[in-house]
Structures are given as C-alpha cells and as structure tokens.
Backbone:
C-alpha cells in the first residue's frame, strides 16, 4: 500500500515536470513587458505601510523616474516602483544610489530609505542585456561553474554593515522580494513535501536502491519546482532559481561528509537517523530564514569564522585518520551502517558529550532511547536529554556554519530573498537524499574511515586557501567524488589474504 501511494505521488510529480517542460518549449521567453528591469534590487521596508516600496520585478506597472529638473546633466537615473500610490513618489539618482553598496530612496515625506544592493555588477549587466526577456543561459550557468569556495563576501557584509541585525521592518523587507502569491505557493509546496516525506517516503524499505531512487526523485522534483517558478515569474527568475538550487548542491559536499562524521562519532543507531535528519532539516530551514533576514552578513563580519571552519575540518580529518587505525574503528563503522554489535562506550568521552555533561550535569542521559526514539525522556524522576539531542545540536551547528558560504554567495548573485530562500529549502530535501546515498555507498563497498578523513582534510585546506585565492566549488566537489571513486576501486581489488 505504501509503495503504491509513493509511486502514485512520484508519477504525479513526473507528469508535472513533463507538462512544465512542454509549456516552456511552447511558450518560449516571456514578452518584453515582463522583462526584469535593468537594476535588480531587493526592497527594504520604508517604515510605513502607505509608503512601502515594491521590488523591481516582473509585473510591476507603476514606475516613475526622477524628474529631470532634480538631476544634474549626464546623471543616470534608475526606475523605482512604488506600491503606496501616486502620493508616495520617490527619487533616485546615481549619486544617491551608490550602486556598489546601497540604494537610497528619498520619499515625498522627506524620509530616506536606505537598503543594500546585493546584486553583483555582472548580474546587473546581464539583466541589462536581456531587455527582451531572453536569458543568456550559458552566461548564467557559467556563474555556477566559476563559483568560488570560501571566498570573501565583502559586498554583502558592507551592504548590511549599517543595518542593525534585528531592525524593525526587516521581515517586511524580505517578504516584499516577491508577490504574496509566490510565497504562498512555495509554502504550500514545501508543506506538501514535508507531509509526503513523513507519510510515505520515510516508510519505504531502507536499501541502496531506495536511496538511489529517492535521490533521482528529489532531483526531478527540484527541476519541476524550478520549471514552475520559470512559468510563474519569467525566464530570468526561473534560471536564477535553478542556479541557486545548483549552487546548494555544489556547496553541500562538506555538510554531507561532516554529517556522516557526526553520526559515526556519536555512534547513532541507524533507526534514529531518519528522525534526526528530519528534525535537522526543519532546523536548517529556520537557519536559512535567519540568514536571509541578515544573520549571514553579520557572521561574515566575523573574519575569524572561515579560518576556524578550515582548521576545524583539518582537525576532524586528522582525527578521523587517526581513529581509522584504532581497533574500535571497525565497530563504529558497523554501528553507523546498521550492523549488529554492541555500542562502544567511547562515545561518552567525545568532546561534545563532555561539554554537554559539564553544562547539563545529571540532565544529560548518555544513551539513546531506541524504543521510543525520544529526544527527552524521564529517568529517576528527572527529565533528561538523550544522545539524540547531542546529535541534533551537532547537525544544527554544522548547518549554521557550513552553509554560510553558499548563503552569502547566493545573496550576491541572486539578489532576491525569495529566490534565495525557496531554492535553499527545496535543495535541502535533495541534500538529505545525497547523504543517505553516500552512507549506503560507504556501507556497500565497506569504505574505510580514512576515506572520510582525507576528504575532510582536503575540504579544510580548500576553505583556508579560498580566503586568499580562487578555489572552485565545482572543483572541490569533483575532487571529493573522485576520492570516493578511487576508494571504491581500491576496495574492489582483492587483498593478498583473499587471494590465498
């Protein structure tokens, strides 16, 4: 019954993908009236509902330009779209806009709305060349291939420098990045994904074939959602959404392998992984929402964070290589793969468990509640947190810091909170499927933990080098995949003992 329902849902989504593809090939590019204006900027709430400014996007009709009498000869002006009516007229000049940092909007009331322009110059130039609505697809996807890993994001950090993190009205600024119906559409889609995941997909039998099918399924779902965004918002925004989705998959390599390391280090039972991954996915959604609200630029101003991440990955890789020679490594390997065997007591001596023991004292239960899969349980008339809580804290911290780079890069390239956040949320389902597939690959081919250690050390070096030179994110992902493939090929070579 479960398989029949899952196949029916998959068939419906595939039909949606085919219909969208046919519609795209039939309709082609949108008319010139729906083309994105030259300056693609995010909107900031001006502090008053009557004077709210809408984002320069497809469908805006009431555009006004600066009066010629208020502009010096030769000064370039940009269109500003007003949602508050004709009485909320605004003026924007080149001197006031500061295209590399901020855009200042002078309203008729005398107030000045100042908000960051997060779109890179190359993106604005590409939009200027596409006045007819046609999208230069090779140029757009070239940005994915040339994406820099660990690079400084001074544009975003400087743009938000004068904006307090929890400034009143920031939520309205983010929500105004797209029409309300688009937010409702994405909320409905993500809610359906969550319900389908709990009611159907998590009940499927665990196997390598199931993981591969789920990975292909979520990839198709991602492209189907991208096609729907293309139809709803136009070819340029559709391509930018797919670009953001692709960037999430390219930059997820470190999160996938660090998540595998967390489960191995804390010896999480296989039956609890799905619950931990699902709660971690919900936490990742909240973290990315905070990033869009301005947490990511605030963390970028802490220049020490990328270096700490690089050295931490190096430490984790070196420690994993050292543990690979330990006799208990095989037991840990079997634990995460779901093989039978007793749980090693060394998990209680891990750094995270010791810190939680110091902070919570007797409120920390150093065990997993496999029967009820509980995060909190009652022991000796006390409510204690099980080791599943330690796993979730690790997953939240991993996503908070390791997804910072791609969040800042997307803020620079996309310049739309809606495209940034929605593509990240849909990609989270695919990234979880990638982790499950990688976990099963390690299990089927019995890959040693030294493979994980080498990958973590390589990613740590890439993060450190990315602050001083250009390190390709696609190249890092390709090298990580190549290391796994080499390890698979090495594991298939029969050893001398097997030959004898």
Residues:
């Amino acid at each position: 019954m479960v398989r029949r329902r899952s196949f029916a849902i998959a068939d419906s989504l595939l039909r949606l993908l085919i219909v969208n593809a046919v519609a795209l090939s039939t309709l082609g590019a949108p008319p010139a009236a729906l083309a994105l204006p030259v300056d693609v900027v995010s909107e900031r709430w001006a502090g008053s509902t009557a004077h709210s400014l809408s984002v320069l996007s497809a469908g805006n009709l009431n555009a006004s330009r600066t009066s010629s009498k208020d502009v010096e000869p030769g000064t370039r002006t940009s269109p500003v779209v007003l949602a508050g009516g004709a009485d909320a007229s605004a003026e924007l000049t080149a001197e006031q806009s500061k295209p590399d940092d901020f855009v200042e909007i002078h309203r008729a009331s005398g107030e000045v709305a100042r908000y960051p322009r997060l779109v890179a110059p190359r993106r604005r130039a590409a939009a200027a060349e596409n006045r007819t609505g046609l999208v230069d697809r090779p140029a757009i996807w070239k940005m994915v291939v040339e994406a820099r890993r660990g690079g400084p994001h001074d544009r975003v950090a400087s743009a938000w420098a004068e904006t307090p993190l929890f400034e009143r009205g920031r939520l309205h600024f983010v929500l105004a990045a797209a029409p309300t119906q688009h937010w409702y559409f994405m909320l409905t889609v993500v809610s359906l994904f969550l319900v389908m995941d709990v009611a159907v997909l998590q009940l499927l039998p665990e196997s390598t074939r199931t993981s591969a099918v789920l990975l292909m399924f979520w990839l198709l779902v991602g492209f189907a959602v991208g096609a729907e965004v293309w139809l709803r918002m136009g070819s340029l925004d559709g391509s930018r959404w797919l670009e953001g989705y692709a960037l999430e998959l390219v930059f997820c390599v470190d999160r996938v392998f660090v998540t595998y390391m967390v489960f191995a280090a804390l010896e999480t039972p296989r039956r609890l992984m799905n619950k931990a991954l699902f709660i971690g996915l919900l936490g990742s959604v909240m973290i990315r929402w905070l990033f869009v609200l301005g947490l990511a630029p605030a963390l970028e101003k802490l220049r020490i964070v990328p270096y700490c991440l690089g050295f931490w990955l190096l430490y984790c890789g070196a420690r994993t290589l050292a543990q690979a020679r330990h006799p208990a490594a095989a037991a840990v390997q079997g634990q995460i793969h779901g093989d039978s065997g007793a749980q090693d007591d060394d998990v209680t001596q891990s750094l995270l468990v010791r810190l939680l023991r110091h902070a919570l004292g007797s409120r920390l239960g150093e065990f997993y509640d496999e029967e009820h899969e509980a995060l909190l349980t009652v022991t000796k008339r006390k409510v204690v947190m099980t080791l599943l809580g330690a796993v979730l804290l690790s997953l939240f911290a991993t996503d908070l810091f390791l997804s910072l780079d791609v969040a800042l890069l997307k803020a620079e390239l996309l310049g739309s909170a809606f495209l940034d956040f929605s593509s990240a949320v849909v990609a989270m389902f695919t990234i979880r499927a990638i982790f499950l597939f990688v976990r099963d690959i390690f299990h089927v081919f019995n890959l040693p933990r030294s493979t994980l250690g080498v990958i973590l050390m390589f990613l740590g070096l890439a993060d450190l080098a990315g602050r001083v030179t250009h390190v390709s994110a696609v190249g890092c992902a390709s090298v990580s995949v190549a290391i796994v493939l080499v390890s698979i090929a090495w594991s298939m070579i029969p050893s001398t003992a097997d030959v004898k």
The chain has a mean pLDDT of 74.
